[in-house]
Specification:
The chain is mainly beta. The protein has a single domain, classed as Umud Fragment, subunit A, CATH 2.10.109.10. It has a 5-stranded antiparallel beta sheet, with no helix packed on it. A hairpin with a 2-residue loop joins strand 3 and strand 4. The longest helix is centred in the C-terminal third of the chain and has 4 residues.
Length: 83
Amino acid sequence: MYPAYRAGDLLLGWRWVRRPGSHQVVVVHHEGRPLVKRLVAQDGGGLWIVGDNPLRSNDSRHFGALPHNALEAVIIARIARAR
């Protein structure tokens, strides 16, 4: 999610979100690992997520929409920057 967040940043997320808003940063599970991405759309087909760095991001442009139950949390704050 560079430049918004860097690897190693400590983030605070809210897990009990029913329907996050568009363009919020979310944590989703894909292929057994968590991803921090920006939610750009959600519909009956699932969640469409993209990274802030389009040249290096592995996101819905590559693997399509994720199911709604892949949503883990919405990021609400950065607690500490990576060094």
